[in-house]
């Protein structure tokens, strides 16, 4: 602000002449009205209401006026500045409202438009359950073993003591890939493995003793797809070969798995059976984890999970046949082994009330999604 100047004549101060103030105000109001957007308005504001605007400069001159002239000049400049700042505020509000309206239109998202991105799939519950089973055994020191799905006949049958005339080798059950049984071309037979048991042979031939392996995998049989059968299904094979293993170890191992997967307090039972690669052999059942046996003989409380039988069949098991050990170069006098082979689809059906096998193979994401990541 300039210092008071005694010889100062207000009439001579150009910036404070009423016409000048009106002119500056009108110019500001016109510029404000003409500002088409907020950016333009910001520039208008700097030019007409900023520190170096004509009205701000005029305001500064007031201090230099003699006292009698101050009031009049002050009122005039003050009113002009007030009018400008009011106009600025009003225009600012108008332009902001316009911008908001425009943004709503320009940036609107039409959620009904078709989109071209494929929705993410979902993990198949069979995969999750397989891994869960692996985890149970890996925690006990087992290793996960693998084998090919197109398997040499020798591994799938011969080494497992399944004789050439065994019914499982006929065309009815087995998908032959090459050199079908009895063909004259002399080629080694290759089949789609009918069970995961050939991984027992591969493990014994490639690993050092003792062997403790768990092997979930896909297997194939010439069944039609229906509610309870599928030509491609999954098994989990277990093999333990060590010194001094008995059927009691097998039983305890299965009991542990059942507890880990289905919960505490569920007993198992073994029924005598026959498999060429185990001796003795058994079928294993577990107590139905839904009714816990309470539905048996009680027609008022039918159980859909076990068909009111009280038991759920898991699969086959037994002590590894010494002929299998011998075929793999393991001394059956020193080593013994136990094994089992359970169907994973069956476990999934029981554990999650999946009623139709087809749901598991058709790949509809609406089936898999509700299982989430952990089951
Ligand atoms: N491999 C048999 C099948 O698919 C199941 C089986 C039974 C596996 C007994 C075993 C076992 O390891 O000991 O029907």
From TrEMBL:
Keywords: Aminoacyl-tRNA synthetase, ATP-binding, Cytoplasm, Ligase, Magnesium, Metal-binding, Nucleotide-binding, Protein biosynthesis
GO molecular function, one term: phenylalanine-tRNA ligase activity
Catalysed reactions, as listed in the record: tRNA(Phe) + L-phenylalanine + ATP = L-phenylalanyl-tRNA(Phe) + AMP + diphosphate + H(+)
Aminoacyl-transfer RNA synthetases class-II family profile domain mapped to chain residues: 127-370
Main localization category: cytoplasm
Cofactor section: Mg(2+)
The EC number(s) this enzyme carries: 6.1.1.20
GO biological process entries: phenylalanyl-tRNA aminoacylation
Entry keyword Aminoacyl-tRNA synthetase: yes
Cofactor details (free text): Binds 2 magnesium ions per tetramer.
Positions contributing to Mg(2+) binding: 279
Protein name: Phenylalanine--tRNA ligase alpha subunit
Organism of provenance: Streptomyces carminius
